[in-house]
Amino acid sequence: MNEYIYKCFNCDKEFSSTEIERNFIYLCPDCGKAEKNKPLNGVLQVIYDYDSIKNEISREEFLNFNPGQIKSYPQLLPLKNPLDEEKLARIKFPQSPLTTVIIENNSVQVFDDTKNPTLSYKDRASLLTVLKADELRCSDIAAASTGNAASSLAGICAALGLTSRVFVPKNIPKSKLLQIQTYGSEVYLVDGDYDEAFDLCLEIASSKKWYNRNTAYNPITIEGKKSAAFDLFIAGKGDLPEYIFVPVGDGVIISGMYKGFWELKQLGWIDEFPKLIAMQATGSDALVRFIETDEFTYKAASTIADSISAGAPRNLYMAASAVKNTNGRGIRISDENILKAQSNIARNTGILVEPSCAVSYAGFRTMMEEGSIDSSDKCLLMLTGNGLKDPDALRNSNKKLNPKTPTDWKNELLNE
Amino acid sequence: MNEYIYKCFNCDKEFSSTEIERNFIYLCPDCGKAEKNKPLNGVLQVIYDYDSIKNEISREEFLNFNPGQIKSYPQLLPLKNPLDEEKLARIKFPQSPLTTVIIENNSVQVFDDTKNPTLSYKDRASLLTVLKADELRCSDIAAASTGNAASSLAGICAALGLTSRVFVPKNIPKSKLLQIQTYGSEVYLVDGDYDEAFDLCLEIASSKKWYNRNTAYNPITIEGKKSAAFDLFIAGKGDLPEYIFVPVGDGVIISGMYKGFWELKQLGWIDEFPKLIAMQATGSDALVRFIETDEFTYKAASTIADSISAGAPRNLYMAASAVKNTNGRGIRISDENILKAQSNIARNTGILVEPSCAVSYAGFRTMMEEGSIDSSDKCLLMLTGNGLKDPDALRNSNKKLNPKTPTDWKNELLNE
Predict the structure, then answer these.
(1) Which residues of B touch A95 (CB under 8 A)?
(2) C-alpha–C-alpha distance, residues B216 and A67, integer Å
(3) Quick one: how many helices (H) and strands (E) in chain B?
(4) Half-sphere exposure at residue B159, Cβ-oriented, CA atoms within 13 angstroms
(5) All structural domains of chain B
(6) Three-class HEC string of A114-168
(7) What is the distance between the alpha carbons of residues B242 and B265, in angstroms, rounded to a whole number?
(8) Residues A141, A123: contact at Cβ < 8 Å?
(9) What is the DSSP track for B164-202?
(10) Residue A258: phi, psi to the nearest 5?
């Protein structure tokens, strides 16, 4: 049986995993608070016995695993029962997520999570959450979401035979709703925004005893998201980038990645952290503002990059500390430059990304132009969602691209 | 240097690869004909020196390769220059395409090509065609297409730095056009249907000296598509399914798969062919009709499964012989049952597929219901395109799925 405890990120109190999990507690029993339009307080972190893990497995053994295979390191997963390999075989992550590409003459590495089971990074969190629900004998899993987290939960539940129940704002983009519905999810439309849906999900899930996958609220979502750090470590054969550009909405991906690197450091397998660069849209920059002022202020978010649109990032405090502890920074990108970056990535690499993760390339370009990095720095862009998940954004990014009409091109080709 | 010849599928004449390739010949120089609303005559096939390949590589060595890695078997590729590994590393196919799933209580294997570089099977053909164009020092590649082949060519060209030029009917679905444009393809709208686009592409590409990727017309497309047969052989550790359900439009996928199995037989590595079951939509059943009557008659195609909509399947004759030589058969599926199958696959496996490949599951169900197969038969469904490529079809398949409104679900949950 796997040993781990839960520790509050805000008050540092520790709790036994049995107490937390058997009672379906998500936030810190002492200081946990989920308030409207505020980051969560008392997010829990899973802490393992790293000394004993170090004795069980060596850096070399770890580096011999294949990326995308969480079954390789059960010691670092918050699960108590042995993994069901037959079930796990139905959920496939890319085994070679790391590629070197050239975009506008710059050579840079990308971490491609756009080919995941439901084509987004969220699948990392959904998989582990669904495995935990299964272990706790919950057949129903709830989540509030504006899109990717819900369709990810819906897809993973479909693959593993559980029921997903999704609370979404009633003005959710039709295309995202379709993805969720096609997987057979029970969809509950909410009169209000994401915050409203989040609160209703907490209330209803708790009264119906549905397991709750709300991002950051459920600490397993952060544990799930750390697997990208391990995949990166393995795929790079132990050699990590110096800078990683990470799209930030609720701040769970950047927190999860930091958690993964932090564990590699606890295990003595890395010496230094990659600098985590938190990338946000100008219209949804709560984390960047927090880094600058050390204070959270709520401002309704508005950006075309809906997957990173969050007025009150749920995992703000943990995300800010991930940036600080790695000597990273935050950068804002305008919607116009996000769409430009999306187009440049597609045209130069053949990878079609969502606007949300196009910010990673826009940030890399910003730092190159500033001169704060140059071509000798080893940089990595996190590509966290497939462009086909959001056809409306493609429409915007292509507004000016009129295809050649029969009259146009006949004249042009014949006169050349 | 790799040795191979071209052989006409219709008149059996053989041609040296240098003659064919240097002169940019695609169809048989003797009997080749591309006529409007007719299958192509004189499609060429690539034939290798199997006896010498047998001496170079053993069945056991071949089975030790990883799926998705064409660089493993350069002897079986129609390329003369050594492969550029750095370029090839940018184009990633799933390394574990084979999964056992349970759909409506039936256990069945699926071959999942929905996570390919541009999320469709077409990438197998595009990759090899683009590598060949590169070898022939053509920087521009043209294709006529109604969607997936064009977006695949556009994506692979973007990744490898070539220019794609795509001829599409001017009523192409907006979402497919967007995918193609985002990759930076030069798009030429055609006043007319796919047939018109096909003919114009032949004419213009030939006069502009652009390499031509038209499906079946360019024999390299068939060679590219055979890699799925090899991946299947490798992933199954040499153990092949008894029945493979293959969606059929122009008939190039089923021809390519048959070519792969035929080569495995030439090499003495398999004894029997899996039975290839050609799956078509009722409104686009030219191959099924041809199998029944041994005669081709043109009928305009009409089906929601646009990726397999073809009134005159370009590779009809080769596809029909693939079915015949494997003791397979053809089956028609109504649009209504295609959408039902799409929904059942998503809800039971978490894999979101296009309507075109949902026919594979519908065919499996048909044969189970007929009693012509039972649960002891080893069956495989080819899943050839991601559902997100065609949001309009998702809309149709979800017409009746009204999500619960706030009033609905509050009443329901509170009264339970």
Answers:
(1) 95-96
(2) 36
(3) 17, 13
(4) 25
(5) 98-118+221-397 (3.40.50.1100)
(6) CCCCCCECHHHHHHHHHHHHHHCCCCEEEEECCCHHHHHHHHHHHHHCCEEEEEE
(7) 15
(8) no
(9) EEEEEETT--HHHHHHHHHTT-EEEEESS-HHHHHHHHH
(10) -60, -45
Residues in chain A where the model's pLDDT stays below 70: 1, 399-401, 416
CB A264 within 8 A of CB A399: no
Alpha carbon distance B10, B28 (integer Å)? 9
Q: How far apart are CA B147 and CA B180, in angstroms?
A: 8
> Which residues contact residue A228 at a Cβ distance below 8 angstroms, ignoring those fewer than 6 apart?
A97, A111, A113, A121, A124, A253, A256, A257, A260, A382
Cα dihedral sign, B68-B69-B72-B77: positive
Q: Do residues A90 and B99 make contact, with C-beta atoms less than 8 angstroms apart? A: yes
Question: How far does A270 lie from chain B, in Å, by closest CA?
Answer: 27
**3 state DSSP class of B46:** strand
Helix B252-266 to helix B227-235 angle (10° resolution) is: 60
Residue A79 CA to residue A69 CA, distance in Å, equals 15
For residue A99, list chain B residues with Cβ-Cβ distance below 8 A.
89-90, 92
Contact A270, A302 (CB under 8 A): no
Nearest alpha-carbon partner for B209 in B321, B308, B133 = B133
**What's the burial of A66, exposed, middle or buried (CB within 10 Å: 0-12/13-18/19+)?**
middle
Q: Is the pTM of this model over 0.90?
A: yes
**What is the gyration radius of the CA atoms in chain B, in angstroms?**
21
Q: Which of A155, A186, A347 sits opposite B350 (nearest CB)?
A: A155
pLDDT, tens only, B366-403: 999 999 999 999 999 999 999 999 888 888 777 666 77
Average pLDDT for B56-79: 97
Q: Kindly report, residue by residue over A16-48, the tens digit of the pLDDT.
A: 999 999 999 999 999 999 999 999 999 999 999
Q: DSSP per residue over B212-277, as a string?
A: E--BTTBHHHHHHHTHHHHHHHHHTTT---SEEEEE-SSSHHHHHHHHHHHHHHHTTS-SSPPEEE
Instruction: Choose from B170, B182, B410 for mutation: most chain A CBs within 10 A.
Output: B182
Distance from CA of A92 to the nearest CA of B (A): 8
Q: Do B404 and A187 touch (CB under 8 A)?
A: yes
Nearest to B158 among A181, A348, A404 (CB): A348
- Integer Cα distance of B111 and B409 in angstroms: 38
C-alpha–C-alpha distance, residues B119 and B132, integer Å? 22
Cα–chain-centroid distance for residue B37?
20
At residue B64, the 3 state secondary structure works out as: coil
To which residue do tokens 């989920």 refer? Answer: A34
Picking from A92, A159, A397, the nearest residue to B96 by CB comes out as A92
